[in-house]
Amino acid sequence: MRFVLAIAAFVLAAAMIVLGIAQRTIFLEPASVSLSATVAEDARFAVVEPSALNARPGSQTITISGSDTVFMAYGRTDDVKAWLGDEPYADIRLAKNAATLSSKIVEPEAVPESDPDATDPAAEAEPETITNPAGSDLWLAEFTAANTLTTTVKVPDGISMIVASDGTAPAPTDVSLSWPTDNSTPLAGPLIVGGGVVGMVGLILYLLALLHLRRSRGPRRNLPRGPRMPRLPRVPRPKAIKANQITGSRKPLTRSMVAVPVILVSGLVLSGCSADFWPRSMSPEAAVSATPTPTGTPAPAQDVPPPAVTVPQLERIVTEIATLTADADANLNADTIATRFTGPALEKRLANYKIRAADPAIAGLPTLPSSSLRLTLPQQSSTWPRVVMTVIQDEADPTAAPTALVLRQESPRADYLVEYMIQLEAAATVPKVAPATIGAPVIAPDSTFLLLSPDQVAAAYADVLSLGEASPSYALFEAEGDSFRTQVADLQTSRKEKLPSTASIEFTAAAGTGRTVALATNDSGSIVAVSLTESETVKPVDPGATVGTEGASKALSGISATAKGITSTYGDQLLFHVPAAGSNEKIVLLGFSQGLISSTELP
């Protein structure tokens, strides 16, 4: 009976081990599942829709080939379609009622019209000739490779991929998507280890059976006596064999029988140590969904436009602008700086380049730090133009004043341009604003829901600079902490004291030509960026007298002395917090930037 049980245990152990190994070999499912599509050879662009990217749960591994240069980027689906505009493209999506990808050439829908509240209705974007999608500010991430591109991402719903070569040549023809699958075998480990344990039990039963058999063959006692047999002749005794004459092994059989199964079971146990061999505490779907999602644009609330950019996206844009600005400032390259600056910020820098070209001893403008963003406030918008405000603190010099940037993107294929670059006041407290994942709406320039309409702020503050307490707008602005107002007053006093008696000086201030940008704050107020111009006109008062110029004014005008007079114009970029209408608070100056932009002789 013991032998029967031992044999049954060995058979059961062998069956369990074979079944466990089979689950990891012949019955093992593939580690990933893939779908592929072919792009028409005449298509210059292809778009992988969210339905294709999220056809299976988990991260997406995309492989693209079929052209010398392969470009792929992903961004918000609306942004991808807006960049394409009226370009035909191959639409790659999950086929209906089938686990395959479909690819067909489609004509895009009409591009959304510009937001009338975001810009001057008279301002129109120039026609664009950009065809290469590489480097666009719209993309959350982009990749480029030669011949074949393979990368793994995990993008949420609402994100699409754009595939191209260089925007002129045909797009890559082969697009493949794959997703990891859960091919774990949670019973393999228990079967293999359990088989080993059952084998050990069978071995023990077998040894016990052998021991019982040996004992049952021993001498028997109290047997009945038979008839006495005659004594046989004595047989010669054989010679004793010495130990050194023994050539065969005399090791006990039981040790070998024990060693072999122990080694076999140990190997099988170790082979089942992988996590894929054992049951898990979560379902395969939960395990796949637990993969971290890369930074993207979160799903906005219903009927609320999404933010124009994400924080990582803006960090990449600002870093590129900072690198370009440093190069342009060092080489006084007006063409280069014009690719990333516009409006008052560009006007100030171009004037500084002319001044430094004429007089290298004059200092350049403050650089743009390529540091992390302290505050990001994108506009809530699905249309164009779009604006974004951000605050940067130079990590290399914590004592330096933070820099506020206001950037504008005129159209989908245009880059974000710096429209205002302003140093914040030392004691400035930026009001609480919405998080970057939500963004803020743009306030209409003529809004009456603020203490002062955004389009009236520049003129009102210019009047305060000109008239001081006599200005009707004086009570609207907070004087305490406004160092710019003090700086302007001190400078005007100094100029008057240094002026000779043969000359006169006149100061004026007016609203500038820069566009007013206003983004809502959490207190129903607004952060408003405006521009001002301050003019300083010096004239001789005696016949035959002349007035001289010096410093930046001399370098920019090219005139050292004139009998007609000279006008120097300074461009001011100002950032205000305008409280809501009916508030007891005043308009607070958050920061400013000033620079000479013009110096001309009077006619």
TrEMBL record:
Q: Where does the chain cross the membrane?
A: 187-211, 258-278
- Renumbered to this chain, the Acidic residues biased-composition regions fall at 110-127
Q: Which UniProt keywords apply?
A: Membrane, Transmembrane, Transmembrane helix
Instruction: Name the InterPro entries on file.
Output: DUF8094
Ranges where the DUF8094 domain occurs? 307-597
Q: Does the keyword Protease apply?
A: no
Q: Which Pfam families match?
A: DUF8094
List the biased-composition ranges (Low complexity): 286-302
Q: Which residues form a coiled coil?
A: none
| Spans annotated as Disordered | 106-132, 285-306
Protein name per Swiss-Prot or TrEMBL: DUF8094 domain-containing protein
